[in-house]
Amino acid sequence: MVWGLLSYVAFRAIPRLAFGLAPLFAALVVAGGVNFKAYQTLSFEREVKESIAKAAPLISRIDGGANVSDDEIRRAQLGIFEPLILAKVANTREVLAISNRHESAVAQLEPDQWFTPASLSTSESRQQVLLRLAQSKQEVDDYKAQMESAAARSRLSVKALSAQMPKELGDGVVRGFDDRAAFLAAFVREYAEASNQMVDATAELLTALENAPRSFVIVKGPPQSIQFKDQAALDTYRGQMARVAAAAERIQKARLSLLSASRRGNDELSDFLEKR
Fold first, then answer.
1. Are 55 and 72 in contact (CB under 8 A)?
2. Is 185 helix (H, G, I), strand (E, B) or coil?
3. Which of 94, 105, 118, 261 has the most Cβ atoms closer than 10 angstroms to its Cβ?
């Protein structure tokens, strides 16, 4: 008889996007239209700096997760950047709404219950988990598609606004948006791919257990564990759990990369304002 401990950590590591990541999304989306280094060379640098300086407190509040209204933005009299900030805050609201909806939908599927003794103990319970796994994969695919659509709409809005600005300023706005949008798009792609890797590995493992129900027994413990009756079954378990753990690590690395991009944007804003 060979033993393998049940693993809960990897499944509980499935990120709750709105918790912790919401401010990062906001910072990237809003600050994304502010290519600070490029603006230092503009012939109307003073006007640009004054507008950014007025916008900075609002950007900081959004970065901290605050809900900034359109009225607050208009009352701040931001000048040349007001239409851009209004458009990008609207996009931020859309991005956060998509992320919140996705988080809620995934949470309802109870991923931390996908690999418990109760979920593995009977064929019926295993089939229920397989159904939830399929639903989770669809939720992730929907999230990715919605985020990509939101990014495309936001870029069209930014392009339209940039066309109404002096060319040197408008070009900087588009470059700034594209730079920040690339970081967010990379996170969304990596999150979706890693999440689906996690789901696929779990589904394959559950299917293997379903096809060979006599190859293991559940021991409720303590500690809770799964007991395999042959080496092949144990090897399958270990291999798929390694894939789950690797996927969870990919998601964490993507999150840290997004955090780093957000911090760089904040540093650029601080450096720009210090040189006023």
1. no
2. helix
3. 261
Q: Coil, helix or strand for 217? A: strand
Rounded CA-CA distance 177/171 in Å is: 10
- Do residues 273 and 39 touch, judged by C-beta distance below 8 A? no
Exposed, middle or buried: residue 169 (CB in 10 Å: 0-12, 13-18, 19+)? Answer: buried
pTM of this structure: 0.80
Strands (E), the chain: 2-5, 216-219, 225-228
Residue 199 neighbours by CB under 8 Å, 6+ apart:
133, 136, 137, 140
The dihedrals phi and psi of 21, each to the nearest 5 degrees, come to -85, -20
**CA angle, 62 then 67 then 73, to 5°:** 75
Q: How far is 78 from 53, CA to CA, in rounded Å?
A: 8
Q: How many CA atoms lie within 13 A of 7 on its CB side?
A: 17
CB 93 within 8 A of CB 99: no
Buried b (16+ CB within 10 A) or exposed e, 77-106: ebebbbebbbbbbebbbbbbebbebbbebb
